[in-house]
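Project standup — Tuesday

K.O.: blocked on the structure for the chain from last sprint. Re-posting the sequence here as requested.
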Amino acid sequence: MKLAAIDIGSNAIRLQISTILEGGVKVLFKKLEYVRFPLRLGHDVFSTYKISQASALKFKKLMSAYKILLELYEVDDYMFCATSAMRESENGEEIAKQVLEELGLVINIIDGNQEADFINKAIFSYLGNETYLHIDVGGGSTELNLFVDGKKIKTRSFKIGSVRILEHHDSPIMWEDMEKWVRDNVKESYGKVTAVGTGGNISKIFELAQKKPGAAMSLKKIRSIMQMIEELTIEERIYQLQMNPDRADVIVPASNIYIKVMEWAKSNSIIVPDVGLKDGILLHLLEKNTQQKKFEFKKGKS
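H.V.: unblocked you, prediction finished:
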């Protein structure tokens, strides 16, 4: 079975096509294709509250290209999910409607809780029974999820993201709200808190820290890497650190979010699973199709 997930974010739009390998101890996803296109919808939306005509045209061309890839790979099922930029734009639903009419593709504009639920599916296998604060920083929003004794007990989405900060569309009230939520919900009685970071920027920081997969990274290390990056120009970040241009300008504001949240939660270390929204969507599709297969099998037997 081949599945595809399309993550329509505020800073970039990602497509991943994977084939499902079954028969072993656990189900494995083998990546067949991954495309990340730097279309920054958040630049328009956080400034003008709508996606510009030029961006909408490019967006529809990209959706057409992704549709061709889905057809060429003969994908069995797929899901397009749009996050903060499209859900906050005045014309996001209209553009999604145009894509449906012109290309036959359904774009699901999901809210912050749905976004968090998908990502939680992807990270759950990395968690134990300790206390974890999951921090997912995107271009337009940050999702926080608190896990205690292997269960998610609190979740909240905040309108604070790397592109939003870069464009100066965050506000002190948003930051105060997020700080209050963390301090009120991450209680001392829960014991030591380990942060779990997802998002392209924390993955890049983890790579720069030269940590082994699965290893924890200290808050002190994140601060030192952010300081090193801050001292470089955008061009130096691109050529010396091998960053994409649309990563080079947002990595510092994104890093600041992780640092602040960890400080408020009194968390001194973070683990960085190499997963994100697209991986959660793939797991959702697998569960959906597996349930359908079980239903069809039972129906056939009866």
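K.O.: great, moving the ticket to review. The chain has two domains: 2-110+278-301, 115-271. Residues 295-302 have pLDDT under 50 and may be disordered.
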